[in-house]
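## Example pair
The file below holds two records. Each record gives the amino-acid sequence first, followed by its structure token line.
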Amino acid sequence: MPKVKEPRYHKIAQEIAEHIVNKQFVVGEKLHARSTLAATFGVSAETARKAISVLADLDIVKPVHGSGVEVLSREKAKEFLDQAKESRDLQTTHGEIKSLIAKQKEDLGNLEEAFSLLLDQTQRVRKNNPMSPYEFVPEANSPKLNQSIGTLNFWHNTGATIIAILHEDEIVLSPGPYANISAGDTIYFVGSDKTVEAVQQFFAN
């Protein structure tokens, strides 16, 4: 969504309102003709006319036929400036949010690309080195814990071969059928991709 450009006459209306708030133009004062205001603010007579119309609609000034423009209210001039500032602040915040969203989309795109690359590299490693082990930590409430590999009939039920168990700070390599699997243990095993899901389901049941 492109940034909305504020009309020139609206900016001039704000400048006139600022003069009123700062008491450079006081309530009851009659300002110069539109052509003089146009010269004062460096704009065309038409732009000055539109600016005066905006202020007149808000009862900040009142055009007086044949004698210029009368200043009516300093308070309403301040309200007009406050509302204009809020509008600018809202537009700025909107732009900042859009920038953040765009940045987030870019970051997500980069993350997706990195994940795809990791997946591709992992698949190539598995293909070139099928004996590269997987690792798995069973949930602490699994009913399969505190039993031996042989009792669990692990290979028959999962198709995976356990090559090591990390128990606390000790790694047990090539554990035999009598080795127990305890809570907190990390199991290292080899097998096909399907064995990963099989191992997860086995300990979850």
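Second record, same layout:
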Amino acid sequence: MASKQLRILVPVKRVVDYQIRPRVNKAGNAIETNGVKFSINPFDDIAVEEAVRIKEKNKSLVENIHAVSIGPAKAQDILRNCLAKGADTSTLIDSKDVQLEPLAVAKVLKEIVDKQKTNLIIMGKQAIDDDCNNTGQMLAGLLNWPQATNAAKVEFVDSDTVKVTREIDGGEETISGTLPMVITTDLRLNTPRYVGLQNLMKAKKKPMEKLSLKDFSNVDVQPRLKVISMEEPKPRAPGVAVKSVDELIEKLKDVKAI
């Protein structure tokens, strides 16, 4: 394998923990966040794990893994978690109360890519709070880099070429691309490791740069969409037990399912 060094960027997001059932706030325009547990977005956690595995497998290939998060000051907790798992450095961009849309996030990340001299971006395919699933694609477009989305397997053919397997309807698709490149991760790519207390303590000594959106004054971060209202999904009607196939057919006819 050639001696070209990888500088990996892993964007991560602080979201309501996936085990918590989201609730609409009293104003009916957003998800309730007060008194709710937050954690790293699961897809981003997989991206961090994959970056660390690449480094562990090819120690001479990876120069640096840099984790970055755009969010409130409390997002530094998930960055510490990334550092404890094996990321080398990190950046927290304090967005305070501004809710950035995917295009704005992609534009800010592009600035970080240029600053870090990144040549490989590994990121979750989507965040579980908004499910947009387009930040990675937008970032690849802004950078004019090749992209491989929804990755279920990542393999380095050599230091410049990456082979990515994606799950598609009816099977798998394998594509390859050359660096620099954007890869977005799917759930089956790996299982993130558990972080022990000792590694969390060590992570406090690793560098964490702290910036704010004011440091990206050339990026338009104003939202283009406004949430008018939000409501809980209507509860499903209880099921009905039937005693025969004929009764089942009649019930389906009643609801015009057949």
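Notes on the second record: The longest strand covers residues 62-71. Residues 166 and 173 are 5 Å apart (CA to CA).
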